[in-house]
Amino acid sequence: MKALKERIMSEGRCLPGGILKVDVFINHQMGPVLMEEMAEEFVRRFEDVRVDKVLTIEASGIAPAIMVGYLLKKPVVFAKKNKPSTMGDFYVTKVFSFTKNREYDVCLSKAYVNEGDHVLFIDDFLANGNAAAAILDLMSQAGATISGMGFLIEKHFQAGGAMLRSSGIRVESLAIIDSLEDCRIRFKE
Ligand code: 5GP
Predict the structure, then answer these.
(1) 176-185: b or e for each residue (b if 16 or more CB lie within 10 Å)?
(2) Whose CA is nearest to atom 9 of ligand 1?
(3) What is the average per-residue pLDDT within 179-189?
(4) Engineering a disulfide at 174: which of 1, 54, 88, 121 sits with its beta carbon 3.0 to 4.6 angstroms away?
């Protein structure tokens, strides 16, 4: 997606360890106009699949997910990183965080994803696919179907995209980065 790639080139910064910092328009300050355009693109790309709910993981996936849910007029649910004391029955799984380099639990109330639901997962980044794998686990516990997974930015040099596609998941990424070597951002054509 051209507008996103241009924004990454002009405002994205490379950090050591293959991390792209996009705090200016995605991960800290957020650009709602681009966010809406990205959501429209997801809606176009997933127009042929059934979506009953949009799902994400807090925190950075919430903004794009709510935009997609708004356009589709479907509820948006986010998996939580800490179990609130008010949560009743829930599904739980573990995620290894790429940026924080540690494992944590994510949980999802059984009230909000039901057996037979078709769910579209939306997140900011796809790196090694740990967050996506956790979602697959939660959805399998719930008996729900993943209609597809949409990422704003996929880092193609990490294993997540290949892992998801080879297991038959429909993956759509709006900008695919081939390499961040030498702190240069190179997109996959
Ligand atoms: P994965 O679970 O696919 O290994 O990593 C995805 C999660 O890690 C994303 O939800 C995102 O929060 C974070 N992440 C992975 N790579 C990057 C990156 O290069 N930049 C930023 N800002 N976050 C990243």
Answers:
(1) bbeebeeeeb
(2) 125
(3) 93
(4) 1
164-173: Cβ within 8 A, 24+ apart? 164/126, 164/129, 164/132, 169/132, 169/136, 170/46, 170/49, 171/126, 172/42, 172/45, 172/46, 172/148, 173/126
25/15 Cα distance (integer angstroms): 16
> How many residues in the chain?
189
Residue among 125, 136, 149 whose CB has most ligand 1 atoms within 8 A, to mutate = 125
Please report which confidence band the pLDDT of residue 52 belongs to, taking 50, 70 and 90 as the band edges.
Answer: very high
